[in-house]
Structure formats: C-alpha cells, structure tokens
C-alpha cells in the first residue's frame, strides 16, 4: 500500500511543553518588543519557525554521546571523533573546530579578505556578507535569473550564474578575488539547491583563474537529497556519497553544524591548503580556543560526529524534505505566493506579492511576520529589505531584490499537526490580505539591523 501521510521516522522520548497564549496577550507582547520578533521571549511563541539553526532535536544516540564527551583541554577523544568524521566527509586534511558558522567566517575571511578584496557567491548569507564587509572587502552575489523569480518552477534555483561569476572575476581582477563561496543550499536565495554540475562549473572557473573555492556547506545533506532527486546522473546515488563528491570539488568549506549536523551548537572550517589553515590558527586560538576544541565542549564535538552520520539517513532526509514540501504545497494550494519549488529547510513567502498594497519602503515582509505572530503565535523571519536593504547617499532605501518571509523548520521538532496549525493560520491571512498596514523603522543599528531594529505600524 502506498501511504500519503508523511510519518515522522522517530518516536518522541522527551517533550518540551509549549505555553499557549491569546491574541490579546500577543498584541501586548508584540508592542513590548516593538514589532521585532527577535526581541520576543521564546516562551511567548507557540510555533517557532524563526530558524532551523541550532533548534534541532538530538537523537538518543547523540544524547548518549553527550555523556561520553571528553572534556580534556588538549587532544580530547571527542575532538578526534569529530575531526575524523569531518575529514571523512570533506576529504580535507586541515580541520578547525569553531563554535558556530560566523566565528569561522570571521577567522577565514579576515585572512583572505581586507580592503580591495572581493568575494563572489551565489548569495552570501547575512553573517557571511557582514564578516566580509566588516573586514573592508566587498561581497558580490551572482544568482541566476531563474533564482530571482519566486514563482518560477526550476530545479536548481540556488545555482551561481557562471557567466556573471566570470564577468565579476574579470572586472575585479582575479588576483583580488578572496574566494568564490558556493552556499548549499542557498539560504538567502530561498533555500534552493545547487546542482553538482554547477559545483563542477565553479571548479573549472576557479581553476582557470586560480581562485580559492569554498563551500558554505551548512545544509549539504539537504542539498544532496535534491541532487539525487533532480539531477539525472545522480539518481539512486547515496546522499552521503553525493555530499562527498561536492566537498571534494572545493578547496575547503565552512560549516555551521547548527543545521545539518543536527546539533544545537558548533561548526568547523575544513581546508586542503596547509598555508591558509596555519594562517587561521592564531586567530582561532585567540578568539575561539585551542585547536582541539575551538570554543566547543567535548560533548558538543561528540554530538557533531554522530549528527554528521545521522543526517544522511535516507528515511530521515526523505521525511525532512517531503514534510517541508507538504507545508509549502498546502500554502501554494491556498493561493499564498510561495517561492517555488519548495526548498529544503524552509518555506519562503513572497510578501511583496501577498501584501501587494504595501510598498517596499514599508516592509511588507515585516508586516506579515507581525501578523503571523498576532494571529497564531507563529514566529517567522523577514528576509527582505529589513535584512538586506541598503541606503543611498540621501538615506533613501535601496530595496533588496525580494521581500520574503521565511518559515524555517527545525529538524525533528514539530509534527504534522503543528504544521497543519500553521496552514490554518495562512487560510485566515489570505482572506484578509488587503487589510494590513505597512511598517516603519523607528530605530536601527549600523550592522545586521534586523536583529535589533524597532518598528511601528504605519497609520
Ligand atoms: N551560512 C549560512 C548559509 C547560514 O544559513 C548561516 C546561519 C551561517 C552561515 C552562519 O552560521 O549561525 O552558525 O553563525 N544561518 C542561520 C539561519 C542563522 O537562521 O539561517 P551561524
């Protein structure tokens, strides 16, 4: 018999209560947080789809590993296990532990970057861009034209545009390129996958111009599922083998283990080149910790070593991707404009299309984020002009290319009934879609303003 219901391929052994709230209470909470969901306490949230990062539920095996964690300062057994797991997966000799992705970005891009340097990516994630720009270098995104059309059905919308990449290299001078960074899957571009062919094409370009090629690989397992699903040459191939092949095309990678290593904290830098690795070690020790723990406890490293194996389990990955697709397809059926096709870790709503009466300088994405919270206690995240908008000389907004709202799904945390509750909420949102007012920013910091900016509803 062919079953339609996606059952979670695990049983629940330990539960975390969710506090319920009323719309009236949430109105008050939202006012106190000045309409910024990053400023709301998690106990006031019913379904937390703010991020899939560090929010995974660990397995019984991982919790058992936590007890085995070796907390020695130098040369811990848990470090050896993590190092060997990362070496096996990436094929890189030089592995550095870091406490999360951005710590690795700060270390590596400080070494490779600086004034006059340029980094090119399909789309730089916000912390990646911030770390590059903070060091004085420039970050250029080269997403394909298909990747910029939210409604278009196209298999690999995360691909980097190879022609644009080559033009950017020629225009800026190959000697000034710090690295090409391929982000898999492409988080800021809609959680869309990158094909193996695209990864190979980047290798050829980087060989031609002698440029360093890095993977931002925090969702590499999910990307591998899509490669097996959509790229003819990889059908039926094991997900882990696909990941290994993609890793081996690059010169190194940075992973925020908070995603596809199924842990709550951790990460690594993996490099083939000893000279670059050595240049990072001083900063690693000053900023993160000694080379055999880098800001992690032994138990964290143990859990990462196990998570990097578990995440490639075929039943897990099938459930993971089909359950994200379930949410996205149901919203699509309701008439909610969503980024198509559905990506791996999240469903992205095209807020500019949903709230088409709200101009971009009144942040339609932020308005939707607030409405989802008010109606149902759902926390989501704006990925649009609040996060990526720039300003011209006169302080006028240069909007982001898209106004998206991300519903990121924590791994192994919510069941199908939680997701059905989210779908019900959208059925209500869509009925009243022409009513919500836009937002204005009343305070913003210089960098990464979405975390701490304050908002008011337009009257
Ligand atoms: N690269 C990508 C593609 C990411 O999605 C993230 C984090 C990072 C790097 C930085 O890693 O958080 O461990 O420092 N993304 C999270 C998110 C925060 O919600 O998408 P980190």
Secondary structure layout plus pairing:
Blueprint: H1 23-32, E1 47-48, H2 60-68, H3 77-90, E2 94-98, H4 101-112, E3 118-121, H5 126-134, E4 138-141, H6 162-172, E5 177-183, H7 196-209, E6 213-216, H8 220-230, H9 239-249, E7 252-256, E8 267-271, H10 274-288, H11 298-310, H12 314-334, E9 346-350, H13 351-354, H14 364-376, E10 378-379, E11 381-383, H15 385-388, E12 390-391, E13 397-398, E14 404-408, H16 416-431, E15 439-443, E16 454-457
Parallel strand pairs: 1-10, 3-4, 3-5, 5-6, 6-7
Antiparallel strand pairs: 2-8, 7-8, 9-14, 11-14, 12-13, 15-16
Helix pairs in contact: 1-14, 2-11, 3-11, 4-5, 4-10, 6-7, 7-9, 8-9, 12-16, 14-16
Q: Specify the biggest β-sheet.
A: 7 strands, mixed
Bound molecules: ligand F0G
Derived from helix and strand composition plus strand pairing, the structural class reads: alpha/beta
Cα end-to-end separation: 56 Å
Q: Beta fraction of the residues?
A: 5-15%
Task: List the defining traits of the structure above.
binds ligand F0G, three-stranded antiparallel sheet, Aspartate Aminotransferase, domain 1, alpha/beta, 2 domains, Aspartate Aminotransferase, domain 2, about 15% strand
Kindly summarize this structure in a few lines.
The protein is an alpha/beta fold. The chain has 16 helices and 16 strands.
Give a structural overview.
The chain is an alpha/beta fold. The protein has two domains: 23-52 and 313-457, Aspartate Aminotransferase, domain 1 (Alpha-Beta Complex), CATH 3.90.1150.10; 60-310, Type I PLP-dependent aspartate aminotransferase-like (Major domain) (Aspartate Aminotransferase, domain 2). The protein contains 16 helices and 16 strands. The strands form five sheets. Strands 2-8-7-6-5-3-4 form a seven-stranded mixed sheet, sandwiched between helices. Helix 5 links the parallel strand 3 and strand 4 (138-141). The longest helix is centred in the C-terminal third of the chain and has 21 residues, at 314-334. The protein is globular and about 60 Å long. The protein binds ligand F0G.
């Amino acid at each position: 018999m062919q079953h339609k219901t996606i059952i979670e391929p695990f049983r629940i052994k330990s539960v975390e209560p969710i506090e319920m709230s009323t719309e009236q209470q949430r109105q008050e909470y939202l006012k106190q947080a000045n309409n910024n969901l990053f400023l709301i306490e998690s106990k006031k949230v019913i379904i937390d789809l703010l991020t899939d990062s560090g929010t995974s539920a660990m397995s019984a095996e991982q919790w058992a590993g936590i007890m085995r964690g070796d907390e020695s300062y130098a040369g811990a057994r848990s470090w050896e296990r993590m190092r060997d797991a990362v070496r096996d997966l990436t094929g890189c000799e030089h592995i550095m532990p870091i406490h999360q992705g951005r710590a690795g970005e700060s270390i590596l891009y400080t070494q490779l970057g600086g004034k006059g340097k340029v980094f090119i990516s399909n789309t730089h994630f916000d912390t990646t861009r911030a770390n590059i720009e903070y060091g004085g270098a420039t970050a250029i995104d080269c997403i394909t034209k298909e990747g910029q059309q939210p409604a278009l059905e196209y298999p690999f919308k995360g691909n980097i545009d190879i022609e644009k990449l080559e033009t950017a290299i020629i225009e800026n001078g190959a000697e000034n390129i710090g690295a090409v960074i391929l982000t898999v899957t492409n988080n800021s571009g809609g959680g869309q996958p990158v094909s193996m062919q695209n990864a190979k094409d980047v290798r050829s370009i980087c060989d031609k111009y002698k440029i360093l090629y890095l993977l931002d690989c925090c969702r590499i397992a999910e990307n591998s599922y899509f490669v097996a699903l959509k790229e003819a040459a990889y059908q039926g191939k094991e997900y882990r083998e696909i990941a290994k092949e993609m890793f081996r095309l690059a010169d190194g990678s940075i992973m925020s283990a908070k995603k596809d290593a199924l842990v709550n904290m951790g990460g690594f830098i993996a490099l083939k080149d000893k000279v670059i690795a050595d240049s990072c070690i001083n900063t690693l020790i000053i900023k993160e910790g000694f080379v055999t723990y880098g800001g992690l406890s032994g138990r964290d490293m143990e859990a990462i070593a196990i998570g990097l194996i578990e995440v490639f389990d075929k039943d897990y990955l099938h459930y993971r991707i089909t359950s994200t697709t379930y949410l996205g397809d149901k919203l699509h059926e309701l008439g909610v404009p969503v980024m198509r096709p559905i990506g791996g870790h999240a469903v992205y709503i095209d807020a500019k299309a949903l709230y088409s009466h709200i101009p971009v300088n009144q942040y339609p994405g932020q308005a939707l984020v607030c409405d989802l919270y008010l109606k149902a206690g759902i926390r989501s995240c704006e990925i649009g002009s609040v996060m990526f908008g720039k300003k011209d000389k006169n302080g006028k907004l240069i909007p982001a290319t898209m106004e998206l709202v991300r519903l990121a799904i924590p791994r192994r945390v919510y069941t199908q009934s939680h997701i059905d509750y989210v779908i019900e909420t959208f059925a209500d949102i869509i009925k009243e879609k022409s009513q919500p007012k836009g937002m204005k920013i009343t305070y913003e910091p210089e960098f990464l303003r979405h975390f701490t900016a304050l908002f008011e509803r337009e009257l």
